[in-house]
Amino acid sequence: MSAGPQKGSDPFRPRLQEEQELRGKGSDPSRFATRVSLLFAAVFVVAGTQLPYLPVWLDWVGLTPGEIAVIAAAPMVVRVAVTPAIAFVADRSGDHRRFLIALAWSGLVAALVLAQCASFWPILLLTLLFAVAASTNTALAETVAMRGVTAAGLDYGRMRLWGSLSFIAASLCGGLVVDRLGPPAVVWLVALGAALTALAAHGLRPGGRPLGGPEAAPTVGGPAGPRLRLADALGLLRSRFFLTFLLAVGAVQSAHAALYAFGTLHWVAQGISSGWAGALWAIGVAVEIGLMAFSKAVVRRIGAAELIVLGAAASVTRWLAMGLDPPLPALVLLQALHGLTYGATHIGAFYLMARAVADRHAGTAQALYAATTAGIAMGGAVLLSGRLYASCGGRTYWAMAAIAAVGLAASLALRRRGLRV
Predict the structure, then answer these.
(1) Domain count along the chain
(2) Residue 10 in domain
(3) Domain of 323?
(4) pLDDT digits (tens, 9 = 90+) for 108-152
(5) CATH number of the domain bearing residue 168
(6) How far apart are the C-alpha atoms of 83 and 137, rounded to whole Å?
(7) pLDDT (tens digit, 9 = 90+) per residue, 195-207?
(8) Residues of 53-65 as b/e, b for ≥16 C-beta within 10 angstroms?
(9) Mean pLDDT value of segment 320-341
(10) Phi/psi at 12 (5° precision)
């Protein structure tokens, strides 16, 4: 990296020496990659059912659009503090697997109890508990994958694409199930995803030994290097580059808020079936998968910061067009832009962090990234969408375009600093 903090104890720094220390001979990276791929697949069964269809269930139990927006946004706000705190403790302990398992089982219990609820306050409490468990597990899964990328040169996209494939399968099958069995099936589909996440977490290699021998890496558990201190982790928030990075990626990703909160409901109101709604979600993720499959080569050719710029520009275009309530053929094309608005932005963000963040801060950095994109920024954008959707309908997407424009400006500033992998 050619710019940004280079000296002192700033944890947002190049990690070439750390990569050389971690890289070893005799490891079994393919087995590690398979286990992480299965973990991503399980985690995204939850996302592939919760994002498109939980608002449908909330509407079915009788909640108002304002209450649905609060339930969608509140977990995002709460996990701003909770997810980084849990990830910091996991980084400090070095045993991410143990935290993944505990959180997965906690999420399953919350989902099973949620299926028995029908009023606002119990639903709010349980969705808070479930969302904290699910979002923290997503951040920890990214942390485990990051160690594979930096220590053994694995291709992040080829592990992560199994999550996207899982999202497609879950959204498509979820739409068919909801069409046949009705909205009550939604919570049971979410519970199934939590159960699969627990099984995948148990399948990770336990303990602190690297795969394949005493010198090999990556490893899932066990501290490596000096014990993490809170002051070191907070150093991330003193890095101007990291804060600009969070603004850029947080704005672009939070611009998806109207789609996540009301996309399926709005499509159904336009006369589109739940099955086609699931297909529209799947189309976007299918393009994302194509990008993920070649992520390492794409980042090498284009650059991580440039991918974030590309995602931001596509986001402005996508939400301006969505505000026009386009017909189904146009929606298919606009959903294909998800490969850029989410996929390119996320890949660029991951590789910037993988290259620049010290290994022992990886979980905390991932959690701060998640807290910003899926917490502060997304929570605020969802609340804004809830206030606008009741009166503006599809024109709510124009507010998302304005948020994406902020992300575009910040990502251009990031690129101008010459920070690329």
Answers:
(1) 1
(2) no
(3) 18-222+230-416
(4) 999 999 999 989 999 999 999 998 898 888 888 988 888 777 777
(5) 1.20.1250.20
(6) 9
(7) 999 999 999 876 4
(8) bbbbbbbebebeb
(9) 93
(10) -90, 85
